Amino acid sequence: MNLRLTRLDKLYYRLQAQHVCLNWAATEIAPMSGVVFELGLGHGRTYDHLRTRLPDREIHVFDREVDCIADCTPPDDRLWLGDVDKTLAAAQERFGGRVVLLHADLGTYEAERNEVIKEILRRRVPPLLAPGAIVLSDLPLVLEGASPLPLPDGAREGRYFLYRRSSSS
Ligand SMILES: C[S@@+](CC[C@H](N)C(=O)[O-])C[C@H]1O[C@@H](n2cnc3c(N)ncnc32)[C@H](O)[C@@H]1O
Q1: Which atom of ligand 1 is nearest to the CA of 138?
Q2: Does a structural domain hold residue 1?
């Protein structure tokens, strides 16, 4: 029987791929210096994962609101509140070319809103990235200067999206 993926399947495979990719990326960036950007605090689950896996890394978190589990609230000086189109533009002044890992978890169930987010990320993300930086995303992206990578073992293709910026600056 060749069943279509149900909504439950999709959620399960997305979280599985997210978990595998975050762990892979945390190891991958170990020899590189730079900051981490987490786009989409949400309930704080992936932020909590990143801060635990990367305890010595400066992690900046972006969302239009704080609606997370209380103990997952980022420190004020690393929290960028507002629409990412504006906050990423502001962050570029300080962090342009210095982001070594960017995780974007901004997608919704609304296709039109996802297209808007993809367009914002297409414009805002490339200038932030350090040479060799890794980008993980719940949405497929087009990023100048970065190429798609296959997902690590244990993650199902098409459930998460992985990119690496070229290592030449
Ligand atoms: C799926 S949730 C993130 C889940 C989170 N990573 C976690 O593991 O708990 C998506 C978040 O993106 C935020 N978001 C969506 N579009 C945004 C935008 N244009 N600017 C800022 N935040 C946005 C929403 O407010 C929401 O909190």
Answers
A1: 1
A2: no
Q: Tally Cβ neighbours within 10 Å of residue 101.
A: 25
Number of domains in the chain: 1
Nearest ligand 1 atom to alpha carbon 83? 20
Residue 85 contacts by C-beta under 8 Å, 6 or more apart in sequence? Answer: 120, 124
State the pLDDT at residue 168.
76
User: Ligand 1 pocket by C-beta < 6 Å: which residues?
Assistant: 40-46, 63-65, 83-84, 105-106, 117
Question: For strand 146-149 and strand 161-165, is the pairing parallel, antiparallel, or unpaired?
Answer: antiparallel
Domain membership flag for residue 44: yes
Domain with residue 84: its CATH number is: 3.40.50.150
Parent domain of 107:
7-165
pLDDT digits over 28-85, tens only? 999 999 999 999 999 999 999 999 999 999 999 999 999 999 999 999 999 999 999 9
The helix/strand/coil state of 165 is strand
Does residue 2 lie in a domain region?
no
Q: Reduced to 3 states, what is the DSSP secondary structure of residue 16?
A: helix
Q: Compute the C-alpha angle 117/131/39, nearest 5°.
A: 30
